[in-house]
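WARN  no MSA supplied for this record, continuing single-sequence
INFO  ligand: heme C
INFO  echoing inputs
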Amino acid sequence: MRLISVALLALMAAAPVWAEVKGDPAAGKVKAYTCTGCHGITGYRNVYPHFHVPRIAGQNYEYLVAALKAYEAGTRKHSTMVAQAQSLSEQDIADIAAYLANTTNP
Ligand code: HEC
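INFO  complex generated
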């Protein structure tokens, strides 16, 4: 157990962990469903017109993963997004980012 965590730590130090996880856009499309309510990527409809929600469709894959990891770790603070990110696994984040990065909705 101890050895495994030491090995994991070494791995994390050596390379960005997310580079090891491959995102599946098809799975990401399903997982990103809850995000669309706020981020409005379907037809870019914003259901909450009075607060600013950044556009995430078409963003750079690495940027999306980094942003979600920052919320998850709490280094980027926004109560809603922290809660969202903490409910996602590493694979979920990779899948969602792979989907969003390949979506061209304006
Ligand atoms: C309840 C509304 C809501 C939901 C649901 C939501 N978000 Fe967000 N999201 C926001 C808001 C508001 C911000 C801007 C927060 C800030 O200023 O840091 C944001 C920011 C982001 C950012 C950073 C964008 C940037 O330009 O830096 C990403 C990436 C993101 N959300 C992805 C997601 C994903 C993926 C999901 C679904 C798992 C999701 N969000 C669900 C409201 C939401």
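Residues 32, 34-35, 37-39, 53-54, 56, 64, 67-68, 78, 80-81, 84, 88, 96 surround heme C (CB under 6 Å).
INFO  checksum written, moving to next record
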